[in-house]
Amino acid sequence: MFFSRMHYAVFAVGLLVFLSLYSFFPSPQSGNPYEFREVKWLNSPQLSLSSMKNEVVLVYFFSPTCSQCMDALRFAQKMHDSYSRQGLVVVGLDSPLYYFENEQLATETLKKEKISHPVAFDSGKVSFKSYGSWWPRFYLFKKGELVYNDTRRDLGLAEQNVRKALGLNYSSYEKYSGSTELYAGYSFASVPLGNPEGFQGGQVVSYAAMPSIAFQRITLDGVWLNSIDSMRANAQARAGVAFIGSEFYLVAFSPSSPVHVFADGFPLKPEEAGEDVYFDAGYSVLNVSKPGRYHAASLKEGSHSIYFEVPSGFTLYSMSFK
Fold it and tell me: Which one-letter DSSP state was computed for residue 30?
C-alpha cells in the first residue's frame, strides 16, 4: 500500500498523542486496585485502605493547578470538618496534572488552604492509574467496598452519598458552585477554540485577529504552537474568553516579559485585580515567570470578557472562572 508523506505525518502525530496519553490510563495492578500505591504522605502517618475496611472512607484525586480540583480540595476539607466525628475518613491524593508540579507545590497548597485531613503525593501517578481516575474524582468506600464513584463532579450528590453511607438523613441536597475549566492543549481540551482555525495538533497556526471573544471558549490571535497540553505563543499575541462569573484564574508560564490583563476592554482597576496582579505605568500586569496557577481577576459577578496580551514564549495551559 502506498503511503504519502501526509499519511506518515498523520501517523506520527497520532502515535505521539497515544504515547503521551498512555500514562493517564489505568495499568494492570495485582490485588486491590483501590489501595494506595507508591505515594508519600505529606501530613499524616502512612495509611492503607485495607486498614480502614471497617470505616467509611472518602478518597479523592486532585491537582493544585486545576481549579475544579481546588473546589474539590475545599469540599473534602468541609466533609472532614462536618463528618469526621460521625466516622468519615477523608483521604486526598495529589497526582500531578502537569510536568512542573512537585511535592513542594503540594505541601504549600495544603498549608495555604489549611488542610487537616490526610493527603499523599502520588508523584508517579501509580495510584491514579490503578484507580483509573481523572481530575478531580471522588471514591466512597464502606467496609472496604466501593459504594460511590463520582463521575459527574457533583459535590452535592457526593455529600448525599457520604451521609447515606454514614447512616444519616440524606434527603436534602446542597448545591455547590463550581469552577468552569477550559484547557488549552489539543488533547486536554473538552471544547473547541473560539477561532474557526481550531486546534491543529502539533502545528504552528496563525490565528486571525479576534473580532470578538467567544463565550466559554479560549479565543486567540497571533501565531501559536498547538501542543498536547498547552498553547505557546511564537510571537506577541493575545488570548481571551468571555464568561459569566467573578473570579478568574490562569495556568501559564512566561519566561520573558510579564503579561498585561484586560477586562471588558480595559486594564483592571485595583479593586478588580486578582491577588497575583500588580500595576505598572497604567497597566494591570500578571507575572507568570514560573509555571503555575495565577489569580488574575476578581470582578463583580456578571458577564465579562477578559484577555491577555502576551509575549513570545508565553505558554497557556488553562483558563478557569467561577
Answer: S
Distances (CA, A) of 200 to 10, 122, 207, 231, 313: 11, 32, 11, 11, 18
- Whether residue 308 contacts residue 267, with contact meaning beta carbons closer than 8 Å, is answered with no
DSSP letters along 167-182, please?
T------------EEE
Closest CA to 58 of 132, 127, 158, 153: 158
Contact (CB, 8 A) for 67 and 251: no
DSSP assignment of 97-130, as one string? SSTT--HHHHHHHHHHTT--S-EEE-TT-HHHHH
Pairing of strands 119-121, 88-94: parallel
Angle at 158 between CA 116 and CA 66, to 5 degrees: 60
Tell me: the pLDDT tens digits for 90-141? Answer: 999 999 999 999 999 999 999 999 999 999 999 999 999 999 989 999 999 9
- The helix (run of H) or strand (run of E) holding residue 155 is helix 155-165
Read off the pLDDT of each residue in 140-159 and give the average, rounded to a whole number: 91
Determine if the peptide bond prior to 96 is cis (ω within 30°): no
Domain annotation for the chain: domains and CATH numbers = 21-165 (3.40.30.10), 180-321 (2.60.120.260)
The residue to which cell 490503578 is assigned: 130
| 288 neighbors 316 (Cβ within 8 angstroms) | no
DSSP string, 37-68: -S-EESSSS---SGGGTTSEEEEEEE-TT-HH
DSSP string, 184-224: -STTT-SS--SSTT---TT-EEEEPPPSSPPBTS-EEEEEE
pLDDT score recorded for residue 120? 98
Alpha carbon 307 to chain centroid, angstroms: 20
